[in-house]
Amino acid sequence: MDDRDLALFPFISEASDHVGSLGFSLDRLISSRALDLARIRGKERVIQSISGEIEKTSFSGSEEGPVLSELLSYPFARILVSCIDDPFLTRRYSLAEAVAAYTLLKTRDVEFLSNFGNDFGVDARPSDSYFDINFTDYIKLASSMKDLKWKLVNRKLDHGNVRIAKEEFARLLQEVVRARIHDSLPIDVPEEICDLCAPYLDGIKEILDKRKTEYGAGDFEAVERELFPPCIAHAIANTMAGVNLAHSMRFAMTSFLLTVGMTVDDIINMFNVSPDFDVEKTRYQIEHISGSSGTTYKPPACATMKTYGNCYGEDELCKRIRHPLRYYSMKLWIKKRDEGKVKVQDKVVDPEQK
Amino acid sequence: MNDKTKRFVKSKFQDYYRTAEIHLPPDFTSREWGFILFDEMPEFVMRRHKAFGSSGELHDYLSGMVPAHAYYSVAYYEYPNAPNMKEKNWLSADLIFDLDADHLPGAPKSYADMLEHVKQESLKLYGFLNNDFGFAEEDIHIVFSGGRGYHFHISTPAVRSLGSAERREIVDYVGSTGLEVNRFFGKKGVSGDAGRESAEVFVLPSEDEGGWGGRINRYMVSYLSGIAKQEDSIKILTGFKGIGKKKAEQLIEIFRDERQISLLKNGKMEALSNIPKPFLEALANQAVSEMSASVDEPVTSDVKRLIRLPGSLHGGSGMRVTALSISELETFDPLNDAVVFSDKSVQLKVIKPFSVQMKGNDFVVEPGEGTIEVPEYAAMYLLCRGAAEYGSN
Ligand code: SF4
Fold this sequence. Notes:
The structure holds 2 protein chains of 2 kinds.
Chain A: H1 3-8, H2 13-22, H3 26-31, H4 36-51, H5 65-84, H6 87-105, H7 110-118, E1 124-127, E2 130-134, H8 135-142, E3 157-158, E4 161-165, H9 166-183, H10 191-196, H11 198-215, H12 219-222, H13 230-240, H14 247-259, H15 264-271, H16 279-290, H17 302-307, H18 324-338
Antiparallel strand pairs in A: 1-2, 2-4, 3-4
Helix pairs in contact in A: 4-5, 4-6, 4-11, 6-9, 7-9, 13-14, 15-16
Chain B: H1 3-19, E1 33-37, E2 46-50, H2 55-65, E3 67-73, E4 75-77, H3 85-88, E5 90-93, E6 95-100, H4 111-132, E7 141-144, E8 149-154, H5 157-160, H6 164-175, H7 181-184, E9 186-189, E10 200-203, H8 212-229, H9 233-238, H10 245-255, H11 258-265, H12 277-291, H13 297-301, E11 306-308, E12 322-324, H14 326-331, H15 334-337, E13 345-350, E14 354-358, E15 361-365, E16 371-375, H16 376-384, E17 388-390
Antiparallel strand pairs in B: 1-2, 1-3, 3-11, 4-5, 6-8, 7-8, 7-12, 9-10, 13-16, 13-17, 14-15
Iron/sulfur cluster (SF4) binds next to α13, α17 and α18 of chain A.
C-alpha cells in the first residue's frame, strides 16, 4: 500500500509498522507544534465517531503534510479514547472507524480487498467481482452478523468455498476492523500524557455526555434489579450460581431483561461473574431470543409461567398482577412515589385489574 | 447388574482389552480422558481429568482398570490433566457430529430399524461434509458409537480453532436451519410486459451451483422427471394443492422433454412460469426436508465434550465403538460387525423381556423362563443392556 492508503487505513499492520518506523516519540506526538494538525484531526475523529461518521479526505494535492497528519491522527485519537476509557465511547469509536473503512473499501478493487483481508488472516481469493473464501474463514467473519442472508445455510458453498460478492466482503471486513480496534482499546496511556491531552479531552467528554443522555446509554443504570419480580430474581440468582435453567425459564428471564431495557452486553456482563461462564453460548442464546431480525419476543405472562412451573416465590404484589413486566412497572411506580417523584393518588391502581 | 454379572462382564471386557486395537486420536497426549468403571456402577461416576503420555500407558489402563465406558476430550489442552477447565487451558478442538436415534424425529422402534435410520442420516451428513464443505474422505472419521448412532470426527487444522457459535453454523447448514427457500428460489422481475403480473420469471440456481440452491434444483428436477415417467403421474401430481389436470399435463410434458429438462437444470425456469408458485415452493420445501441431516446440535457446539474412544467397548451394549470408512459405513451392520464376543454358550437368567437380532440369529427372551443358554455375544448384549443377570441362580 502507498502512504495515502496507509493514512486511510491506519489500523492495518503495515500502517502501524510505518508509523513505528517514522520514529515519533509519544512526547512529540503529544506536544510537537509541527503535529498540531494531526492532533486536531485526531480529536475530530473521536468527535465525529460520537456524532456520526468519520469523514475521510481523498488527498487531492500532492503534498505529503496532510497525508502524515491523517496517518498520525489515528494513534492520537486512540490515546484520547483510552484516556477517557468509557465503554460506550470505545464501542462507538471502533464502530465508526470500521464503518468509515467499509465506505472506502466498497470503492476499491477486488485485489485491494483481498490484500486487505490477508492482514486479518482472511484468505479470500478474488475472481471477477466476487470472492471465494474458505468456509471456516467465512463463518468466523459472518457468524456475528444478524441478517439471515449471512447464514452459511443461505450461501453458495461448494467444496469448502463460500462465494461472496465484493460488497459483501467489504461488509465482513468492516466487522474484523471493528473487532481489531475494539479489542485493542484502551491502550495503556500514562497519566501524565492524559493530563497533557486535557485540552483535547474536555470537548470530547462534553459531547460524549450529551450524546449518552440522548441515546439513553446510561439506561442500564436505570434498570432496577431489586424491583424485579421473584421469579426473575430467582432465575438470575440461579444463572449466576451456574445452575442450568429450563429452556422456558431462560426464555422468560432473557426476554424480560431485554424488554426492561437491558442490552445483550448488559445481560452478559451481569452473568459474567463465575469463571465457568460461557460467554459465547450465553450470547448466542440471548441473541437468539432478542431476535436476529430485530423482533424481540415478549416475556410470557404469569399464567404461562405457572403452567411451566416457572412461577417462583409469588408475593403480595404478585396477587395483583398478571404479568411479570407489570410487577416491575408497579414496583418502579411505587418507588418513585415514595421518593416523591410521582404524585400520590388514592392507591395504586392496576388498570389490567379494573 | 448384580455383582456376579459385573464380574463376568468385566472379565470379558478385560479379555477384549488385552488384545484390542485402539484407535488413538491425533495428539492424544493433549487430550483429557474420562472413564466409568464397573465397580462404581450403577452410579455414573466419571473418572476424568486423566492424561496419558504414551499408548502403552493407555493400554495398561484399559486392561488393568477395565472401564465400562472410555472417553477422551474432543478438545486439545495444554495441561489435559489439570483438575479444572480453566487450568487445562483449552487450545482447540476436533469438529464432532453426533447422530443418535434418540434425536431423530419419528425414529422407528426396533433397534435394527433404528440403526438403519441413523445410518441414512449419516450418509446424508457425509454428503454435506464431502461435497459442500470439501472435506477429503480420509479426513472424515466415522465411528459407530456402540449404542444408537454414529459419531463423525474431523481434526483438520482449519476446523480446530472454530468456536461454538461457528460450529453451530455448520450444524444449521446440514440441518437446513434458517434456510430461506425464497432466497434460492424466487421471482425475478422482467421488464417490458406492460405491467402484467406475469412479468416475473422464476429463477433457480443451476444444478451445479454450490450450496442448498443446487441441491434444491437437483432434487426438484429428478423428482418431477421421475413422476413424469410413471403411469399414474397425473394422479400423483393432481394430489398436490393447486395442480389440476391441465397443469399436471403441462408438467408431464415438460419433464418428458430432455431439452426442457436441461434448461431447467441450468436454472432457466421459464417453462414453469405457468405453474403455481405455491406448488414449486412446496416441492422446494420437500427437497429441503428430505435432504437435511439432523445432528445433535449441543454435541457439535460443545468444544470441551468427551467422546467415546474408537476401539473401546460400550458398557451399555457390550458392542465395539467401531471406526469406519465411508464404504464400510454403507454396508455396516452393527449387530454383526460391532459384535466382538464368541459363540461359546453362557447361562443367564432373564429379568426383562427383550428381543434382538444378532449375527443373523433372533433372540427373544422372557423373564421367568428359568436359566437359558445363549451364545456369549448375545449374553454380553443382554447383560450390558440390563435384560438379564449372569449364571444359573
Ligand atoms: S406471579 Fe407472575 S410475577 Fe409473580 S412470581 Fe409468579 S410469574 Fe413471577
